[in-house]
Amino acid sequence: MSEKKGRRELNRVENRNAILRAAIQLFGIHGFGATTVRDIIRQTDLAAGTFYNYFSNKEEVFRAVVNEVGDSLRTQLRAARNQASSFEEFIAGSFRIYFTYYAKHPDIFMMLRSNQTYNGSLIAMEDHQARTGLHELRADVAAAMDAGVIPEQDIDYLTAAIGGVAFSLVAEMMNRRPVDPEQAVQFATRLFLNGMSDFNTVPAPNLKKKAL
After folding, report:
1. Domain limits at 41?
2. Are residues 116 and 175 in contact, defined by beta-carbon separation less than 8 angstroms?
3. Which among 11, 88, 131, 144 could bridge 149 via Cys, Cβ 3.0 to 4.6 Å?
């Protein structure tokens, strides 16, 4: 009985993943608005009604992808930042996780880029996952400053700068051939290291301002 239950559970996971993979591909190519539930099912080997065993509509599929991507990235980013023992490691580690993820998952990048306004709001900056990620980044920046890993500066500006560079450079990186995440990491890291070189001598009026 347990073996049958295990097989059923595995089938459920595989079916759900098949739907997500199909949706990612179609949303990236045709856009959210032009893709239907029927299109998604046709992209899989599943029966027509199987979709509704897992999702109520295509909005739920889109949200599931965004949440899974966001949860995975945020976990990896926090781990990298918390292990950093220098500002260079903090910056390079963060960018390396972020850029490498999308270099390895161009289909997900295409889906997100093609549907930034699928529900009338910019996924890149206003989505729950993005806001949560920036909030966590700010907390990690503050902790790193307290630990002496990062020179004390305006936390909110630094958080916004790291997030803004990540959002902007990943788009440029994905447009290049070949896609080279390490090149993007090195550029972003040099940008912050050189830009921060004289910050220890410059007073900052609001080092630990309000949280996001």
Report:
1. 1-56
2. no
3. 144
* Tokens, residue 74: 């945020």
**What pTM value is reported for the model?**
0.81
Q: Are residues 152 and 190 in the same domain?
A: yes
* pLDDT one-digit tens code per residue, 146-200: 999 998 999 999 999 999 999 899 999 999 999 999 999 999 999 999 875 555 5
CATH (domain of 19): 1.10.10.60
Dihedral of the alpha carbons of 70, 71, 75, 81, in degrees to the nearest 10 = 30
Both tokens of 95, joined, read: 């960018």
Rounded CA-CA distance 62/64 in Å is 5
pLDDT-based confidence at residue 4 (cuts at 50, 70, 90): low
Q: By percentage, how much of the chain surpasses pLDDT 70?
A: 84
Q: Are residues 125 and 202 in the same domain?
A: yes
Contact criterion met (CB below 8 Å) for 115 and 123:
yes
Is there a single domain that holds both residue 204 and residue 110?
A: yes
